[in-house]
Amino acid sequence: MKILVATEKPFAAVAVDGIRKEIEAAGHELVLLEKGTKDDFIKAVADVEGLIVRSDIVDTTILDAAKNLKVIVRAGAGVDSIDLEAAKQRGVCVMNTPGQNSNAVAELVFGMLVMLIRNNFNGKAGTELKGKTLGIHAYGQVGRNVARIAKGFGMEVSALDPFVTDEAMIADGIRPVHSVEELYSNNQYVSLHIPATAETKKSIGERLIDLLPENGVVINTARKEIIDEPSLVEALRKRTDVRYVADVKPDIADDIKAEFADRVFFTPKKMGAQTAEANINAGIAAAKQVVAFLKDGWNKYQVNK
Ligand code: 3PG
């Protein structure tokens, strides 16, 4: 059978080699489409049984073109770029690869933070993370890695997540909090790890950002859609001490950059999961999951049941 790997942001070559080995060892054929257009994607998906993607958009146009498709694996966590319901209606199983790229994203949180609080290395005295408060908004796989690293920096860590028990957080040595108000009011640094869903889209704006203590910083390595962008602008105007850094560039990034200069930072392309290790982990896990599904319907990480 044919398995298409379609990535607008290609995996490291070493990860592609590993994916190829998994697919060919199972007797399947790898079709590789890197940085293709939507038309290329539509053509390439026409005769494949399996599909591996990253944040690539899989909508009804793609699904309708994919007449033989049985399984999609998102090599990563977020599945907001895939029309899950439409896939379900067409009998296509969608899975993700939980946890496989989360350390890479967590490490970037601190890469961006250190750069920010050392004033982009401009020679002026900056500040340190040790002893500062960090609030983790959603304690999933990335949030847990952020907590682990933050403790290494000597930060005081709290987290909010209605799906995680207080006991689990306390066992990890962090403080559970139970409302967004509590999270934003008591932490100088807030790191966002909520997925983009109907409930969370545009949920972060002036109301919460204005609660931050003095010199507050919001770090977003999750999704741009969770931010209410006009409201973020209002917050940055009102609170001239607050800063915003994101690995998920806002739609109005140029305007924000022009107005707030060094108080904001955006990576040019989403780089959180873009490490060789994360590509190998997520890519090979995805290949194994596609192969297992095509073999005997293995669907442990199905997200569209
Ligand atoms: C994820 O959801 O796994 C991360 O946001 C990484 O996404 P990417 O594979 O598009 O870099």
Structure write-up:
By secondary structure, the protein is of the alpha/beta class. The chain contains 12 helices and 12 strands. The strands form 2 sheets. It has a 7-stranded parallel beta sheet with strand order 8-7-6-9-10-11-12, sandwiched between helices. Helix 6 links the parallel strand 6 and strand 7. Helix 1 runs parallel beside helix 12 and helix 5 crosses helix 6. The radius of gyration is 20 Å and the shape is elongated. The two termini are 24 Å apart. The model has no long low-confidence stretch (mean pLDDT 98). The structure holds 3-phosphoglyceric acid.
Structural class determined from secondary elements: alpha/beta
Order of helices and strands: EHEHEHEHEHEHEHEHEHEHEHEH
Total number of helical segments? 12
Report the radius of gyration as a whole number of Å: 20 Å
Shape: elongated
Ligands in the model, by name, code or SMILES, are: 3-phosphoglyceric acid
- Unreliable segments of 5+ consecutive residues: none
Q: End-to-end span in angstroms?
A: 24 Å
Strand count, sense and closure of the main sheet? 7 strands, parallel
Q: Estimate the strand proportion.
A: 15-25%
Give average pLDDT, whole number.
98
**Topology, number of strands:** 12
Helicity level: 25-40%
What can be said about this structure in brief?
This protein has 305 residues and is α/β, with parallel strands linked by helices.
Observed structural traits:
single chain, 305 residues, alpha/beta, seven-stranded parallel sheet, five-stranded parallel sheet, 12 helices, 38% helix, elongated, binds 3-phosphoglyceric acid
